[in-house]
Amino acid sequence: MSSDPVVLVHATKQLLSDAAAARLITALVDAQNARGEAHVVLTGGTMGSAILASVAASAARDAVDWTRLHVWWGDERFLPDGDADRNETQNREALLDAVPLDPAKVHAMPGPDGPDGDDVAAAATRYAAELAAAAGDGAPSPTFDVLLLGVGPDAHVASLFPGHPDQLTAGVAAAPVHDSPKPPPTRVTLTFEALARAERTWFIVAGADKAHAVKVSVAGAAPAESSAAQVKGRRETLWLLDADAASELS
Ligand SMILES: O=C1O[C@H](COP(=O)(O)O)[C@@H](O)[C@H](O)[C@H]1O
């Protein structure tokens, strides 16, 4: 069960960010209203933190009950806690440190200063176990209410790089990535199987350097050309773009 991609274009990167933030607040409020708690998966990169900064600046920010939100990550650069290049650090600066989250519900991916040291495979296994524990019903992870994904110019999402040997890891929810083509070389990522467990999947993409990746991904390219094309939400798959990122779409 998955949904067909829908494209929505905003004129500027700032409008894209603000509109996506409004959409995110509403989706989290609705999920909490329906089920008590909500689960969101965050992303790194340009738009991953831009949308969170827009949430932070929104007058509706505290319509979300932050204490009832589980925060997960789609991927993480395998760097120590607080490193400026960690997605978590950037997301914290943009929003997470400014809202009253329950620390027990903030599920950061371990780095080399974590319980497994520099064993990135063990760190990924640990994260998969945390996902399964949160599901609590034998599923490999909770159902994610909203999955946010940035997209690289090479059409990667999370740390799943097209054509990379670690791209197609199967049978686990989280996997190590070695020799990433984008620095840093070592990462932890959710797998395609885990990314498929979202109700709403939103790609948030700005900039002309992403236009080709957007075009081939929306068209449904094969894994060797696009990781983004392999990910769909169960209920909704939205491509939220600025005009530059949409410039190669017909
Ligand atoms: O390395 C990463 O890159 C992508 C996209 O980043 P961008 O700066 O090109 O927007 C990001 O979504 C991913 O989480 C991150 O680890």
Automatic annotation (TrEMBL):
Catalytic activity line of the entry: 6-phospho-D-glucono-1,5-lactone + H2O = 6-phospho-D-gluconate + H(+)
Keywords recorded for this protein, A-Z: Hydrolase
EC number: 3.1.1.31
Domain Glucosamine/galactosamine-6-phosphate isomerase: 12-239
A Pfam family that the UniProt record links to this protein: Glucosamine_iso
Enzyme class: hydrolase
Pathway(s) of this molecule: Carbohydrate degradation; pentose phosphate pathway; D-ribulose 5-phosphate from D-glucose 6-phosphate (oxidative stage): step 2/3
Gene3D superfamilies registered for this protein in UniProt: 3.40.50.1360
Entry keyword Hydrolase: yes
Function: Hydrolysis of 6-phosphogluconolactone to 6-phosphogluconate.
Protein family per UniProt: Belongs to the glucosamine/galactosamine-6-phosphate isomerase family. 6-phosphogluconolactonase subfamily.
Protein name: 6-phosphogluconolactonase
Source species taxonomy: Bacteria, Bacillati, Actinomycetota, Actinomycetes, Micrococcales
Gene name in the database record: pgl
